[in-house]
C-alpha cells in the first residue's frame, strides 16, 4: 500500500493498535468512543464540526482518511447533539424493553379486559352485548353476572344514583342479545344459565366441540346460531327450549339429527347444511311451524314420508345431496314457494299437484329426461325454472301454461327444437338454451339473446297459423285464449255440453298460435256469439252451475236471446288458443265460458296477455271479485288507461301487473287497494303518480321502469312498507335522499339508465339499502369500476365523502 504522507502512516499504525476497550460493545449495542485513546489522537468521530473534519480535497494533495468506525455523512444532521453527548459524562445504559409476541397463548385476564367498563354500561342500558371478533379464548367470567347489580351500584347512595340517573340500577335492562361470534371459544361455561333473559345467542365461527347442558335452562331463548364450529351433537336439554324459533347448526360435523328435534314445536327456521347428515329422523314432520328447512351439502338419500306434514314450509333446500326422487305427496306442501334440488341424482320430476304457490324450482345438475305436462298445468305462479345440465331431449308445448315464468334455463341438455308456444310467455325475460344441439333456429339468432329468440318463435307461429288457413275472419272478437280440441268439457266439473246443442256452438276463433298451444289455458273469454243462433234454452243449460256451489248465480241476467254487445267487443291478435266447442254462459251482456270460471276459482288469477286489448268490461271484474281473484295481470296489451272495473276488486287484489301497455296516467282510485303488495307499471307512458299513492301501506314492490319519469314521484316517499323500487330506464335527473330516508324498509333501489348527474354522498348513510343499481347514468363519481364492485363498495365510497 502506498501512503502519500506521514499522517496516513500514523493513522494506519494507530488503527492496527486499537485498545481492547474500543472493540467492546456497550450496553446500548454500540461502541464507547470516550475511553478510546485512539480518538485522542485523531479526534472523536462524533465531533463532525467543520473545524474537526479532515480535508478530503484530493486536489490539494491531502488525502486524509476517516476511520470506518466514524459516522457516515448522512448522520451529520445530528452532529451537534452527538457532540454534546461526547462532551458529557457517559449516559446511563438504555433500558432493556421486553416485547410480547403477537401470537401467544391467550390468558384469562386478557379475555376479562375485553369487557370494558364502557361495553358493560352499554350492555346494561340496551340489553345487547357484542363481543364478536375479539379473539376471545374464553368468555369473560364477569359476563355471567351482568344481570346482577355491580359493587359500585350497591355502594352508591340514593343521592349519588340520582345525580347519574342513567347509571342507576332501576334503568338497567337485562341482557337479551349476546354475540360471541368469530372468536376462538372452545367451550361455554355452565354459568350460561345465569343469563335467563337471553333471547338471542350467537356463537358462530368458533371452535366449540360441545355445548353445556345448562343451555336448556334459557327458557326465553328464541334464536341460536352455532354454525361453523366443531359440534357433532347437541345436548338433549336444548330440545326442551319452549320458545326456540331459529336454529342454525350448519358447517359442523353432524352425521345425523337427533329425533328429539321434533320437540321444538315453535321452531320456524332450521339450517343444518354443510354437515355429513345421511338421513332425517322420522318425527321431523312434527315441526309444523317450520317455514324454512335448509339441508344443502349433506349425504341425504331419502326423505321421510312425514316431511310433507310441514304445512307451513315455504322454503326447502336439498341441493348437493344424494336424492333420487321426491316424496309422492309433495302437493301437501301447499305453501311451498322455493324448492332447491340441484346437484342430486333425481331421474324425474313430480307433477307438483297442489303446489300452486311454488314460484322458484331449481333442479339443475340431475338426470331428468323430460318435463311432465301435468307439472306445467299445476304451477301457475312459477317464475323461475332452472333445469340446466340434465338429460332433457324435448320441451313440451304446455310450457306456455307457466304464464308467470320470468326465467327459464334449459342450457346444457339435449334439446334440438324449441316449441313456438314459448312466445306466449308474456313475462319471460331470460331464456337460456346454450349447450343444446338446437337445429331449428340459427346459431346467430340464439346468440342474440332472449328477445330475438322469442321474436323468431312468434314469427314462425304466425306463419304456421296462416298456412293452416286460420285467418282473421273468425266468429267475433273475444278476450283470451282457449282450449285444445281433445280437452273436453267433461274434464271440468263446472261445465257440461249436451250433445244435442253442440252443433249450435261449434265455431272457430281467430288466432295466431299453433293449434296445440295453451291447452287448458286459464285465460277468460268474452265472446261475441255467432249470428243466426237459436235462442238460449234455460232448460237445456240450467245444470251448468251447481246451485249448491253457485248460490250467487241467481243474480245472473240470463237472457233468452243473444244481446247486442258491440261495446264489449275486444279484438286481439295475440297468442290465444284455438277453437272452442263448448256452450257459453251469459253474465250481464258478456258471454263467459264456464271453463274459465273453473280455472278462475282454482288459480285465483285473472291473466290476459298478448291479446292487444284496449279495454276490459266491468262485468269481467265483477265475476273475478265473486270468485276471490287476488292476482290481476293484463301485461303486453294495448291498454291506454287503467280499467275502471278494477275498483270492484280493490279489497282483494294483492298483485296487479299492467306492464307493457300504453297507459299514460294512473287514476286516483289506485290508492284504495288496501291489500296490494306488488304493482308493476313498467313499460308504459307514465310521467307521474297520484299524490294519494303514498297511502298504500301494504305495497312491498313497485316497478315503474321504462316510463317517462323525470323525477321520483313525491307520493313514493310515504310508502313506509316499500322494499323494492325499480325505476330504471327513465329520465330521472336527481335524487331526493331526504325522501328516501323516509322509507325505512327500502332494500332494493334500481336507478339504472337515467339522467342522474350527481350522487349525494349522504346516500351512503342509508344502511337499509342492500342492493343499489346506478349503472348507465352520466355522473362522474363514483367511477364505473366502483359501481361494478357492488352495493357495499358504492355505499362505502359515498360514506367516506360525507362532510364531517
From TrEMBL:
One Gene Ontology CC term in the entry: cytoplasm
Presence of the UniProt keyword Repeat in the record: yes
Pfam family, one: LRR_1
Domain Disease resistance R13L4/SHOC-2-like LRR: 368-436
Keywords: Leucine-rich repeat, Repeat
Basic and acidic residues composition bias: residue spans: 458-468
Domain of life: Eukaryota
Segments of this protein annotated with the region Disordered: 49-97, 458-490
InterPro entries: Leu-rich_rpt (IPR001611), Leu-rich_rpt_typical-subtyp (IPR003591), LRR_dom_sf (IPR032675), LRR_domain-containing (IPR050216), LRR_R13L4/SHOC2-like (IPR055414)
Protein name, entry field: Leucine-rich repeat-containing protein 40 isoform X2
Organism: Drosophila pseudoobscura pseudoobscura
Amino acid at each position: 500500500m502506498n501512503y502519500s504522507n506521514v499522517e496516513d502512516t500514523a493513522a494506519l499504525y494507530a488503527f492496527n493498535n486499537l485498545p481492547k476497550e474500543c472493540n467492546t460493545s456497550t450496553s446500548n449495542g454500540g461502541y464507547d468512543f470516550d475511553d478510546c485513546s485512539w480518538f485522542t489522537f485523531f479526534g472523536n468521530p462524533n465531533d463532525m464540526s467543520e473545524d474537526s473534519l479532515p480535508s478530503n480535497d484530493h486536489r490539494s494533495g491531502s488525502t486524509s482518511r476517516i476511520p470506518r468506525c466514524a459516522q457516515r455523512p448522512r448522520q451529520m444532521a445530528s452532529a451537534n447533539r452527538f457532540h454534546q453527548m461526547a462532551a458529557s459524562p457517559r449516559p446511563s445504559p438504555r433500558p432493556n424493553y421486553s416485547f410480547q409476541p403477537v401470537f401467544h397463548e391467550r390468558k384469562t385476564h386478557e379475555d376479562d379486559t375485553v369487557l370494558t367498563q364502557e361495553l358493560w354500561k352499554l350492555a346494561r342500558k340496551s340489553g345487547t352485548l357484542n363481543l364478536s371478533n375479539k379473539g376471545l379464548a374464553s368468555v369473560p367470567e364477569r359476563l355471567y353476572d351482568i344481570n346482577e347489580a355491580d359493587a359500585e351500584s350497591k355502594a352508591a347512595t340514593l343521592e349519588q344514583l340520582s345525580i347519574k340517573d342513567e347509571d342507576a340500577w332501576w334503568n338497567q335492562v337485562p341482557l337479551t342479545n349476546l354475540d360471541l361470534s368469530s372468536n376462538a371459544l372452545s367451550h361455554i361455561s355452565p354459568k350460561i344459565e345465569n343469563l335467563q333473559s337471553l333471547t338471542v345467542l350467537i356463537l358462530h365461527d368458533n371452535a366449540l366441540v360441545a355445548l353445556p347442558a345448562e343451555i336448556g335452562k334459557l327458557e326465553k331463548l328464541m334464536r341460536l346460531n352455532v354454525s361453523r364450529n366443531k359440534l357433532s351433537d347437541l345436548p338433549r336439554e336444548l330440545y326442551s327450549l319452549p320458545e326456540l324459533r331459529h336454529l342454525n347448526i350448519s358447517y359442523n360435523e353432524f352425521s345425523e339429527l337427533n329425533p328429539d328435534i321434533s320437540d321444538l314445536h315453535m321452531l320456524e327456521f332450521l339450517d343444518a347444511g354443510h354437515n355429513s347428515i345421511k338421513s332425517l329422523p322420522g318425527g321431523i314432520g312434527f315441526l309444523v311451524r317450520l317455514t324454512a328447512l335448509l339441508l344443502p351439502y349433506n349425504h341425504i338419500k331419502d326423505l321421510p314420508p312425514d316431511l310433507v306434514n310441514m304445512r307451513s314450509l315455504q322454503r326447502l333446500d336439498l341441493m348437493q345431496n344424494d336424492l333420487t326422487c321426491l316424496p309422492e305427496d309433495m302437493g301437501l306442501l301447499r305453501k311451498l314457494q322455493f324448492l332447491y334440488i340441484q346437484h342430486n341424482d333425481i331421474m324425474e320430476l313430480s307433477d307438483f299437484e297442489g303446489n300452486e304457490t311454488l314460484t322458484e324450482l331449481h333442479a339443475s345438475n340431475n338426470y331428468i329426461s323430460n318435463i311432465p305436462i301435468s307439472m306445467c298445468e299445476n304451477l301457475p305462479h312459477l317464475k323461475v325454472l332452472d333445469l340446466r345440465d340434465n338429460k332433457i331431449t324435448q320441451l313440451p308445448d304446455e310450457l306456455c301454461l307457466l304464464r308467470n315464468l320470468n326465467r327459464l334455463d334449459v342450457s346444457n341438455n339435449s334439446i334440438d327444437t324449441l316449441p313456438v308456444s314459448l312466445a306466449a310467455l308474456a313475462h319471460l325475460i331470460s331464456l337460456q338454451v346454450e349447450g343444446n344441439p338446437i337445429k331449428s333456429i340459427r346459431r346467430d339468432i340464439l346468440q342474440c339473446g332472449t328477445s330475438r329468440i322469442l321474436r323468431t318463435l312468434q314469427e314462425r307461429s304466425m306463419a304456421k297459423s296462416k298456412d293452416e288457413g286460420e285467418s282473421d275472419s273468425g266468429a267475433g272478437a273475444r278476450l283470451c285464449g282457449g282450449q285444445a280440441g281433445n280437452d273436453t268439457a267433461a274434464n271440468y266439473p263446472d261445465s257440461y255440453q249436451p250433445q244435442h246443442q253442440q252443433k249450435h256452438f261449434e265455431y272457430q276463433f281467430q288466432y295466431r298460435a299453433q293449434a296445440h298451444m295453451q291447452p287448458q289455458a286459464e285465460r277468460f273469454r268474452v265472446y261475441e256469439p255467432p249470428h243466426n243462433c237459436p235462442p238460449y234454452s234455460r232448460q237445456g243449460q240450467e245444470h251448468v252451475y251447481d246451485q249448491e256451489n253457485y248460490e250467487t248465480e241467481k243474480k245472473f241476467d240470463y237472457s233468452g236471446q243473444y244481446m247486442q254487445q258491440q261495446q264489449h267487443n275486444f279484438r286481439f291478435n295475440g297468442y290465444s288458443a284455438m277453437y272452442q266447442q263448448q256452450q257459453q254462459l251469459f253474465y250481464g251482456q258478456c258471454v263467459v265460458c264456464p271453463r274459465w270460471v273453473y280455472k278462475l276459482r282454482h288459480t285465483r288469477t285473472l291473466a290476459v296477455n298478448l291479446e292487444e286489448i284496449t279495454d276490459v268490461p266491468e262485468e269481467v271484474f265483477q265475476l273475478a271479485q265473486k270468485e276471490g281473484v287476488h292476482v290481476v295481470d293484463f301485461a303486453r296489451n294495448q291498454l291506454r288507461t287503467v280499467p275502471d272495473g278494477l275498483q270492484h276488486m280493490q279489497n282483494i287484489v294483492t298483485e296487479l301487473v299492467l306492464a307493457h301497455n300504453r297507459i299514460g296516467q294512473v287514476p286516483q282510485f289506485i290508492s284504495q287497494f288496501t291489500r296490494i303488495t306488488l304493482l308493476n307499471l313498467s313499460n308504459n307512458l307514465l310521467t307521474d303518480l297520484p299524490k294519494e299513492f303514498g297511502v298504500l301501506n301494504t305495497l312491498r314492490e313497485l316497478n315503474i321502469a321504462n316510463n317517462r319519469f323525470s323525477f321520483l314521484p313525491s307520493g313514493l316517499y310515504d310508502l313506509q312498507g316499500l322494499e323494492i323500487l325499480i325505476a330504471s330506464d327513465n329520465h330521472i335527473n336527481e335524487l331526493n335522499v331526504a325522501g328516501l330516508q323516509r322509507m325505512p324498509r327500502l332494500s332494493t333501489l334500481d336507478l339504472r339508465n337515467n339522467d342522474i348527474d350527481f350522487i349525494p354522498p349522504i346516500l351512503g348513510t342509508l344502511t337499509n339499502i342492500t342492493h343499489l343499481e346506478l349503472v348507465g347514468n352520466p355522473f362522474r363519481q363514483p367511477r364505473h369500476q366502483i359501481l361494478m364492485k357492488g352495493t357495499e363498495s358504492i355505499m362505502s365510497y359515498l360514506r367516506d365523502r360525507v362532510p364531517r
